[in-house]
Amino acid sequence: VLSWNQLYDAVGEAVGIVPVNKVHIPSDLIAKLSPEQEGGLIGDKSHSVIFDNSKIKQVVPEFNATIPFKQGIKETIKWFDSHPERSVVREETNAMFDKVIKSYLSAFNKLEPIR
Hints:
Blueprint: H1 4-15, H2 27-33, H3 38-45, H4 54-59, H5 69-82, H6 91-109
């Protein structure tokens, strides 16, 4: 079982970015600033879940996952690097992420402790 932080750290390691500079922004704030993100965030990624392979094992009992995530993500990144046509950076998505992070940090940095 891997947390979001562990997943992002493994991806960062796979692409040579260590440590990963993570900014933890509440999903409802992201949805407020970028409403088109709401469905995927509020309905999916804002809840902790554990994925397992019990269903596939019911159908194919001999199935055994043997590649840990850290190794698998390295292989995935290598595959994307060897297929540049599948590695398109969407500048509008990057710009949206930058605006959300800037808005969040701007407000966060103005906060004062409650006394």
